[in-house]
Amino acid sequence: MESSSFPWLSHKEWAVQRWGEPLYRVPVDPGWGCPHKKPGEIGGCSFCAEDGGRARQTLGADSPAGQVAKGMAFARERYGEGKLELYIQAYTATFSSVDALKALIEPLLEANSFVSLSLGTRPDCLPPASLELLLEWNQHLDVWVELGLQTAQDATLLRINRQHSWAKSKEAVYKLQEAGLNCCAHLLFGLPGETSDEMFATVEEVVALPVQALKLHNLHVIEGSILGEQFKQQPFPVLSESAWLELVMQLIRRIPADLPLFRVFTDSEHRLAPKSEFSKGAFLHQLEGTMRERGWFQGEL
Ligand code: SF4
Hints:
Elements: H1 11-19, E1 23-28, H2 64-79, E2 83-88, H3 98-111, E3 114-121, H4 128-137, E4 142-150, H5 154-159, H6 166-179, E5 182-189, H7 196-207, E6 213-218, E7 221-222, H8 226-233, H9 241-253, E8 261-263, E9 271-273, H10 280-294
Parallel strand pairs: 1-2, 2-3, 3-4, 4-5, 5-6, 6-8
Antiparallel strand pairs: 7-9
The protein binds iron/sulfur cluster.
């Protein structure tokens, strides 16, 4: 088995343990929107981009099959061989009828050899009928729900206009556990008004929940978001990438070593802040080097 190249359990290492080779994501944006964001308006969560976080490799292809073809070509060209995961992303994937979900996903699963299916959603958007359908697919492939939790602090959830509480987030995680589905929790750090103690407290709360993976994001203030508008009117301090490097090491040390970290760095377009200091590769290299130098590793605290 390939040994870890990072002092944390990366997506690649986790995939090699699970599948014997890396797992590459093929993103599809069904264009269903989000229950929390009205089309054509700036609204929803204050950090959310106008396109709901659509992956750049799906841009320029409209049909789901076209997006899959583009995404697969991108993955093969950039990464080579490996297993493939269908990732229904951007906005809120379970914000649709079960019939629409079936009509979108089944042809894509039939036509391609995906070993895994992942859907991004909000804690208050997990209707029982959708969970049942996911469970059905879970018989044949790994099904992951990527759940946007962001923070465990109710005051921050209110400030960023999430329109759900931390109690709702916990309820959603337990609902997924009960259904037997994998949950990857998305967390966002550097949100306005949040202290580092609150960010550590969020990690402590989240690792106590039955989640199977985490994505750690540092805040980007994006053009077209509520925060972006506020920033343009009155710039406010935003966690720099060097500060995130220091913070994420402290977070990683507090996360159990067997919990894979599918992401540790935000990579987005159209950002207003913070200024870019690292490419994703350079950030990972620096993070790895610094942790090794200091003798730090995931889960040691
Ligand atoms: S972050 Fe997610 S839940 Fe919030 S507005 Fe954007 S798509 Fe909707």
